[in-house]
């Protein structure tokens, strides 16, 4: 199979991150097509329509079969048709992993709205809203349940799966906003963040061009920026 994955900025695009991390983690060959977000949304939509019927990312193109798959969950299910390792082999673990991925796909609105992804920043969160705290508590509950039931180190057992890829942006958000999960859940977040595929995405995002004022503002929301890793990386390169 020859796949092309269309994505947006690695600094911001949590939806793009999920299938990209999965493809990398499972060593599935693909060509990356990066389309930087634009300040003007109407211009961006028009540009994205050239490769995506919804004008959104991610969008996977199966060049062999001339197929276009334009939703992150649909992408992983499409990949699973040819790569069984996308999901756990055990029936119960596979069901749990699918439930976890679907919950991330449709839920956790507070953490999406209040803690937008920005891999390069470290931000002082302050006191979470009630809605955000509920999301944080649910993440801890879900991660602890998966580790307890299936033994880890990943959310549904010994092997990295699509469910882990779906929570990779959550691991990034936890680092950006200093969100701490207790016990096995916190250990899982650290392990997920340090996965080589996740780190490859984060490292690219830190030095990526195309920083957008609207995306930075959406992430910061008037809070204190503690560190910009992009600036630090430039200083490290210069030996300062």
UniProtKB/TrEMBL annotation:
InterPro entries reported in the protein's UniProt record: Glutathione-S-Trfase_C_sf, Glutathione_S-Trfase, Glutathione_S-Trfase_N, Thioredoxin-like_sf
Protein name: GST N-terminal domain-containing protein
Signal sequence interval, chain numbering: none
Protein origin, superkingdom: Eukaryota
Annotated PANTHER family: MALEYLACETOACETATE ISOMERASE
Homology family: Belongs to the GST superfamily.
Pfam families for this protein: GST_C_2 (PF13410), GST_N_2 (PF13409)
Residue ranges occupied by any GST N-terminal domain in the UniProt entry: 1-87
Gene Ontology terms describing biological process: glutathione metabolic process; L-phenylalanine catabolic process
Organism: Hypocrea virens (strain Gv29-8 / FGSC 10586) (Gliocladium virens)
GO MF, one example: glutathione transferase activity
